[in-house]
Amino acid sequence: MANTGKPLIRALQGERVRPVPFWLMRQAGRYLPEYRALREKAGGFLDLCYAPELAAEVTLQPIRRYGMDGAILFADILLVPQGMGQKLWFEVGEGPRLTPVRNRQDVEALRPEDVVGKLAPIYEAASRVAKSLPEQTALIGFAGAPWTVATYMVEGSSSREYAKVKEWAFGDPAGFGLVIDRLVEATIAHLNAQIAAGVNAVQIFDTWAGIVPEDAFDRLVIAPTQRIVAGIRKVHPDIPIIGFPRGIGANYPRYFRETGINALNIDSSMDLDVVAKELQPIGVVQGNLDPNVLLAGGVAMDQAVTAILDKLGKGPFVFNLGHGVLPPTPVEHVARLAELIRAHG
User: The domain containing residue 255 runs over which residues?
Assistant: First the structure.
C-alpha cells in the first residue's frame, strides 16, 4: 500500500510503532485561537464546513502547531442528513437543529443518492488537505454511525432523554429500520467519496451507542456498522477503519470482533488492564485519555498519559482521547501532551 510509510497507518494495520502515533478527536476546533479567528471570518459553522479552502485550513491548523500523526478532516456528522435533504442549522450557543424526521413519509423524502453531490465541497477540502499534509501525516475521514445520527434526526437536536427516537426504534422497529437503511447507504457513499478524495483512514463515530439497551444492540449498533464496513471494503479493501462506540462497556469486545473494524477507540471509563487483556488481543486499540484530564493538565495529566502509554503501548496502539478536546483546553496542555507521547519509550 502507498500509505504504509505513515506511522498512524502502520499502527492501524497492526504494527507496533514507536513513538506511539497520536491524534485527538476535535483537535481542530474552538480551543485553538487560530480556529476561532477563522470561524469568525467564515460567518457560521456550516459556512466553514462548506468552504473547502477554509475547512482545509482548519484541518491543518493543529498539525502545524503540534505535529499530530493524523489530521482529521474538518466537517460534521450531521452533514449526511442535510445531504439527504433534511433541514439543518446551528443555533449560536445551543448547537444543531434539524427539522425532525418522525414518520415513514419523512423517511421517504430522504435521498441518500444525493449525498455525494451535495457534499462535494467536503471532498474538495479533503483533496486540498491530502496535497498539503507532511508526507508522514495521515488524513482521517469520518462519519457518524446510523444510530447516533438518527438520534439527532428524530429528536431534532441533541437530547438528554432520547424519548422520541427510542419510542420509534422500539415501538416500530420496521419503520425505524428504514431510517437506518437510508443512513447506511448514505454513510457508505460519503466515506467512500472521502477515501477517493485522499483520506488514508476513516472513523465511524457512534457517540450514543451506550444508550442502546442490550436487546437492541445488535440491530441498532453492530449490524449497521457491519454493513458500512462491508460497503467500504467492497470498494477500498485496504483502508483502515476505526470504530468509536462510546460508552458500551462490556460490549466492546463483541463490537470489535463482529463489526469488522481494524481499530477500536475506547472511552475514558475503560480500565487499562481490561483493555490490554481483552481488547488488544483482538486488534488495534485507540484512546483513551479523559478530555477533562487534558483540560486540567499538570501532574495529573502527566501521570495519566504515562499510565496509558505504559499499559497499552506494549501492544497495537494509537494514542487519542476518550472523547473530543474540550473548548476551554489550554493550548499549552496539548503541547505538553505531544511532548510526553514523543518522549515515551
Answer: 2-343
Active centre residues (catalytic): 26, 30, 39, 76, 152
Q: What is the domain count for the chain?
A: 1
Against a cut of 0.90, is the pTM above it?
Answer: yes
Residue range 281-301: mean pLDDT, rounded: 98
Model confidence band, residue 93 (pLDDT cutoffs 50, 70, 90): confident
Task: Give mean pLDDT, residues 150-161.
Answer: 95
User: Rounded to an integer, what distance in angstroms lies between the CA atom of residue 80 and that of residue 74?
Assistant: 14
Q: What is the CATH number of the domain that holds 12?
A: 3.20.20.210
Q: pLDDT digit string (tens) for 98-118?
A: 999 999 999 999 999 999 999
Contact 63, 134 (CB under 8 A): yes
User: Which of 234, 226, 239, 237 lies closest to 198 in space, CA to CA?
Assistant: 239
C-alpha cell at 207: 457517540
